[in-house]
Amino acid sequence: MEAAHGEHTESREEEEEGLGGLTAEELRQGQEAALALEARMALSAQSLVRAEVDELYEHVRALGQGRFGRVWLVTHRQEGTVLALKQLPKASTTLRGFLYEFCVGLSLGSHAAIVAACGVGLESADSYSFLTEPVLHGDLIGYIRPKVGLPQAAAQRCAAQLASALEHIHSLGLVYRDLKPENVLVCDPDCRQVKLADFGHTRPRGTLLRLAGAPIPYTAPELCAPPPLPEGLPIQPALDAWALGVLLFCLLTGYFPWDQPLAEADPFYEDFIVWQASGQPDHRPRPWFGLTPTADTLLLGLLEPQPRRRSPVSSVRGFLGRPWRQREGEAEEVYPGEDEDSGQDCRGRTFQRP
Ligand SMILES: Nc1ncnc2c1ncn2[C@@H]1O[C@H](COP(=O)(O)OP(=O)(O)OP(=O)(O)O)[C@@H](O)[C@H]1O
């Protein structure tokens, strides 16, 4: 969604009236978060360890590869501590971009559903790296059974933990902006505990952003509309609430609700908008058939197209412990299985609905 990873390609307007509808309190919160991050980045720049990764750490195995970085399981050569090391090549990451992601991770402190940063940043000849706790059971995408989703209890546990992690991030004046199953790491084979990772896209509330590239299912509709200011849309936690709604739909059904939230381009989104506006049960789009009225209410709140009317991520708490799926039998096992029915799941954007 951005031109360059971690770089401040966005500009921030200082005047409240120029901030496309942010309240004074929202503006203050975002500005404080931005200042705190700048201060932390200045300090961290001075304390970077300058060494090659191999001098200090032994590679055990690769844990994952993203668009920007490679993540390794490593052990500290002297202490023997087992850690995850995210390595970002200098060819594609600026020092500022690296410091930004590193310091956002540090500023989130300790939260049970957020990958803990270790506070060590490394500058090597060709890369920047930082260390975090390792999470060893893969990411959530491997647990979502195509056309089925997760068992309800696991879906509700994930929902509760992710809502809590996002609430924490929002309370610090930040917007996460990259919620998707690939960024949710799983701590145990039964998917009891999950942790949010990858803070390369996290920004202070009110940062002005434009959508760069095609929208994905998790992109909120306000980002697809022409921005209220030439520099872009002042970002709000509501972006994360939307993405959480889409992710919960995937967990409960094994389908994406749509490919992109554009009624003119996506018939599934158009159907949803018609249902959402009419409130008529017989307008319910087919992919929603298996959900309960409780789940409908939760998801319709998170997936409210108007960001100011959208439910906050904390709304999830009020819906836990009640059935979200009408029939539970089809999704009893949690398993990190392979794609059973390629193209018809929520692992790719171009799946087909029933
Ligand atoms: N702490 C960790 N423990 C275990 N695996 C991890 C950890 N951090 C990241 N990974 C794995 O590495 C993958 C890539 O990491 P990450 O998402 O941080 O990279 P990225 O380049 O920023 O990705 P993206 O393309 O989503 O922006 C993750 O999907 C995950 O599988």
TrEMBL record:
Q: Does the keyword Transferase apply?
A: yes
| Record-listed E.C. numbers | 2.7.11.1
Residues forming the Protein kinase domain are: 57-325
Which residue intervals make up region (Disordered)?
1-20, 327-354
Q: SUPFAM superfamilies given for it?
A: Protein kinase-like (PK-like) (SSF56112)
Keywords from UniProt, A to Z, are:
ATP-binding, Kinase, Nucleotide-binding, Serine/threonine-protein kinase, Transferase
State where composition is biased (Acidic residues): 330-343
Class of enzymatic activity (EC top level): transferase
Q: Give the binding site residues for ATP.
A: K86
> Among its keywords, does the record have Manganese?
no
Q: Which reaction does it catalyse?
A: L-seryl-[protein] + ATP = O-phospho-L-seryl-[protein] + ADP + H(+); L-threonyl-[protein] + ATP = O-phospho-L-threonyl-[protein] + ADP + H(+)
Write one Pfam family the protein is assigned to: Pkinase
- Ranges annotated as biased composition (Basic and acidic residues): 1-11
Check the record and name the InterPro entries matching this protein: Kinase-like_dom_sf, Prot_kinase_dom, Protein_kinase_ATP_BS, Ser/Thr_kinase_AS
- Alphabetized GO MF terms: ATP binding; protein serine/threonine kinase activity
Family, similarity comment: Belongs to the protein kinase superfamily.
| Entry-linked PANTHER family | PROTEIN KINASE DOMAIN-CONTAINING PROTEIN, SERINE/THREONINE-PROTEIN KINASE SBK1
Name of the protein this chain belongs to:
Serine/threonine-protein kinase SBK2
Q: Which organism is it from?
A: Ovis ammon polii
